[in-house]
Amino acid sequence: MPASALQGVYLSLVSGIGYGLIISLLAGGLSLIYGVMNNVNTSHGAFYMLGGFLTFFAVSSLHLPIVLSITFAFAAAFGLGLICLYVLIPRTMWVSSDPDSQNIVMILFLALAQVLQRGVFILYGGGSVAVPSILFGSIALPGDVFISYQTVISIAISILCYAALFIFLRDSKIGKAIRAFSQDRELAEAMGVRVSTIALMTFGLGVSLAALSGALLSSIYSVTATTGWNELVIAFVIVTFGGIGSISGSFLGGLVYGIVYSITQYYLPAYSFVIALVLIYIVLITKPTGILGEIIERA
After folding, report:
1. Rounded to two decimals, what is the model's pTM?
2. pLDDT at res. 293
């Protein structure tokens, strides 16, 4: 393989790992919500978009430092998610396994996505915005490949966020309740786990992860009021590849998707997304639950 081709693969690996880790936060939030609530959050991409605009608002209007602005976007998305779930979705449908209820919830989440996007469009118009980088400049890697400080910091934040999420789910009282509820709903309820509390916390945490992903990537890729639909599809692809309901699967799936997408984007840009979908199709044929997924049974 020519040296230029090897450098292209190397560059694609570096950029793919960075993009995959950051976008995997979006998928992790989607997987978390489904694993507990048994509902597909079709407004998830809108919260990704909102993360970028909330960060931009904090920087431009509140004049907060960029790190605090990202923290603000994460916290604001968490609070907004709680409000939206509590107001928009009937409580009896939060964790319902009834197909009709699930369809209604999906439609209501779609309506929420439209409302959020319309609200952002009214405030900021249809133009794109980009938030400033946490740190400017780049690092030279062996082989004349450069990676921006912003990408390195975003990767570090993503890894730290996953570590904090694993510790939260493993050690905290609410995290243990979330895991118990996702594994055996009836037993968790019998042990005194409050369904409403778990649903609210899970949804808030899931959409705040989506917002964090959008906040980090909005400094690399600009966002518009219509951003989010492609990212929602990407999140579905990653979750399906890694395994529905598996946070580890979302982490791994994001890495694989980012690398495959980046390499194909470098060599076959017109087919990059199609190739990623073909990869998912192959995985589903051989392992329908995804790489790290398990069959989830609910009464």
Report:
1. 0.89
2. 62
